[in-house]
DNA sequence: TTACCGCACTTAATCGTTTAACTTAACTTT
DNA sequence: AAAGTTAAGTTAAACGATTAAGTGCGGTAA
């Protein structure tokens, strides 16, 4: 291990001078600087960031808490964080809560959940991270799960009543998808919703409704079905919808899994997609590319969300809190593939 | 920020005593201990791990370098690392190389690749990680990409000629899959290989071959096709195979994507799976669950690989290098779903 | 009585940096 | 010539922990 002191001794100067050279500070003659630079290179000096951090009280490290890293979408968000962090010399201290494996899918055990989160936060703070990004699972409101901390904190992919957050614009995305179908000539557009008690389900419903209204179309309640986000529920709801006396000519599913179920139902019922029925999904999940036909779906700005979250952290650290948006909503993008056409 | 010193002052003792209480060391009377514990709790003392690390030269942090976190399988491995790390009070400093986005898929630019890795390693060493785990993309040999370091280093999901590594047993997995088909009565078993220049493709071919030999079956060269791991290549090779004069009754694809292509080819050719043709995939990728029919496939021990890698790091730190296996190969597990039956 | 031991602490050095404050010499200004 | 300024360093105190070595005291053994 080569220390600053070793460099200083070899160069015949004080550690302060070496430090000044490393940080481009203070007054150091060109001659001395060159000499030190040379020795630095020769001895392959690598600064000990731990020591530096202790003195400067900055670690250039951001703590990332993710509810479950193996859950769909989390890696892309982390990737986005990583990209922005790296550009600014920051590292990522990752904490995976493994919430699904530990408390199941219903999150009813709020206490245990809170306990896990508190532990994670404490551990990160102990390691002196400069800020924390919390990655949720989109559908949940995490208000109150993290207690006040005196470092920058940004929530992404989840909702929080207070504090900074970064999400995508569910309502607008749903509006656009519906609008796209209408502009292609569809009038009988069905919606397969996810669980009704989630915020995104509400917002997406609103977007659907607003698009209908914009074109003076009446919302037909028998065209709105509620699934539970699963493939099977999409299959089931599609059968319901398509066996009505006046079936829809298009179905907007609130995620790609349910859209997959719709496609399977169509195969069974002998309905051709997109000739007889147009289908739009949501998420641009990888599998949507391997459906037959390839699914037209909404792509989520996941990397951008990560990058934006990190950017907020950096600006917060920079004391720019006045000028930072509390809740940022990023735009989704419709990926046009093969599952939509004009109605016959 | 509450420091050890603050606790000591409030308790009327020296910082040493407080430190001894915190670390359960030294001689401290029960009375003093209780008093300190109480104050520790009252002031919500959180040790500064940076300071502790500087003194102890241990950070309880493992650096994880992943070639691309958004690539299939990486999150599960990280999850496994995380689980084991957490159990032992370790944190994960994550470095995502984003190799695909930066140098494309061919990895021909070895220099740039090496440069990125060297930077990542240096950065982690600067932050004084106790060890490093390198997560590759399975198909590659990464020998020489990381230069010698004097800390524990474990490769997983990739091959390295020297050093510690953790992988799964490709050959045995392929042997088992083939054997399963044979035991169900198949004799005409085709193989759709991935790119032939990769280590796993070789090993899986060997497993396939050995299973045939075990049952005195002759390897029929026209039953072995080489794809490039993509859905489309699976589709194309399946068409080749199925339009031969004597088509196979079963196809083993070296990944789920190509198996998906096989299923699509079957739909087009009016071939019923599994009645007319049995199909086995490899990877247990999420999409395989949404194929029609649901795909029988090989599940990879990803979490276990992560956990095992972390375990090796810990044992290496513990000075147990004598007793640690250099290359660990973990078993895969066949997931039986709906795409295999006995031949007619 | 003296020597020794163990208990329950304290003292102070240390880990590898940073940085405010100081020093010294050379140069400028009046 | 005296005073002031500047350049190019050095000194030494932090940062918040750990820990070897030291201290003082009461008890025990020879």
Topology (SSEs and partners):
2 copies of one chain form a homodimer.
Chain A: H1 4-11, H2 15-23, H3 30-42, H4 49-56, E1 61-66, H5 74-87, E2 91-96, H6 99-103, H7 110-126, E3 131-135, E4 153-156, E5 164-168, H8 170-183, E6 189-193, H9 199-214, E7 224-226, H10 231-242, E8 250-253, H11 256-269, E9 278-280, E10 297-299, H12 302-317, E11 327-330, E12 333-335
Parallel strand pairs in A: 1-2, 1-3, 3-4, 4-5, 5-11, 6-7, 6-8, 8-9
Antiparallel strand pairs in A: 10-12
The structure holds a DNA duplex (30 and 30 nucleotides).
Describe the structure.
- Chains A, B: It comes from Parageobacillus caldoxylosilyticus NBRC 107762.
- Two copies of one chain form a homodimer.
- Helices cover 42% and strands 15% of the residues of chain A.
- The first copy, chain A, is α/β, with parallel strands linked by helices and 344 residues long.
- Chain A folds into three domains: 4-47, 434 Repressor (Amino-terminal Domain) (Orthogonal Bundle), CATH 1.10.260; 59-169 and 301-331, Rossmann fold (3-Layer(aba) Sandwich), CATH 3.40.50.2300; 170-300, Rossmann fold (3-Layer(aba) Sandwich).
- In chain A, the strands form three sheets. Chain A has a six-stranded parallel beta sheet with strand order 2-1-3-4-5-11, sandwiched between helices. Chain A has a four-stranded parallel beta sheet with strand order 7-6-8-9, sandwiched between helices. In chain A, strands 10-12 form a two-stranded antiparallel ribbon.
- In chain A, α5 links the parallel β1 and β2.
- Chain A is elongated.
- At the A-B interface, α4, α5, β2, α7 and α11 of A face α4, α5, β2, α7 and α11 of B.
- Chain A binds a DNA duplex (30 and 30 nucleotides) through α2 and α4.
């Amino acid at each position: 291990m080569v220390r600053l002191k070793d460099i200083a001794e070899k160069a015949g100067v004080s550690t302060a001078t070496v430090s000044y050279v490393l940080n481009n500070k203070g007054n150091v003659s060109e001659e001395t600087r060159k000499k030190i630079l040379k020795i630095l290179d020769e001895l392959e000096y690598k600064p000990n960031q731990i020591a530096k951090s202790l003195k400067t009280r900055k670690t250039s490290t951001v703590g990332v808490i993710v509810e479950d890293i193996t859950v769909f979408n989390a890696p892309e968000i982390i990737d986005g964080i990583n990209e922005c962090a790296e550009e600014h010399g920051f590292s990522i201290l990752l904490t995976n809560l493994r919430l699904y494996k530990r408390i199941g899918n219903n999150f009813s055990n709020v206490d245990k959940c809170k306990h896990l989160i508190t532990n994670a936060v404490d551990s990160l703070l102990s390691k002196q991270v400069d800020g924390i990004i919390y990655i949720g699972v989109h559908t949940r409101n995490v208000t109150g799960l993290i207690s006040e901390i005196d470092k920058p904190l940004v929530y992404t992919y989840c909702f929080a009543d207070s504090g900074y957050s970064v999400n995508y614009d569910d309502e607008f995305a749903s509006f656009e998808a519906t609008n796209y179908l209408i502009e292609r000539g569809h009038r009988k557009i069905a919606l397969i919703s996810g669980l009704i008690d989630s915020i995104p389900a509400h917002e997406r419903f609103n977007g659907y409704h607003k698009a209908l209204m914009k074109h003076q179309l009446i919302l037909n309640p028998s065209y709105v079905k509620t699934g539970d986000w699963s493939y099977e529920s999409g299959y089931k709801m599609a059968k319901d919808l398509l066996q009505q006396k006046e079936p829809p000519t298009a179905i907007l599913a609130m995620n790609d899994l349910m859209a997959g179920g719709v496609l399977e139902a169509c195969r069974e019922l002998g309905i051709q997609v997109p000739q007889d029925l147009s289908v739009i999904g949501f998420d641009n999940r990888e599998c949507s590319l391997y459906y037959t036909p390839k699914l037209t779906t909404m792509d989520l700005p996941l990397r951008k969300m990560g990058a934006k979250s990190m950017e907020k952290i950096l600006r917060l650290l920079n004391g720019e809190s006045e000028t930072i948006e509390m809740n940022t909503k990023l735009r989704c993008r419709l990926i046009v593939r093969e599952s939509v056409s004009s109605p016959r």
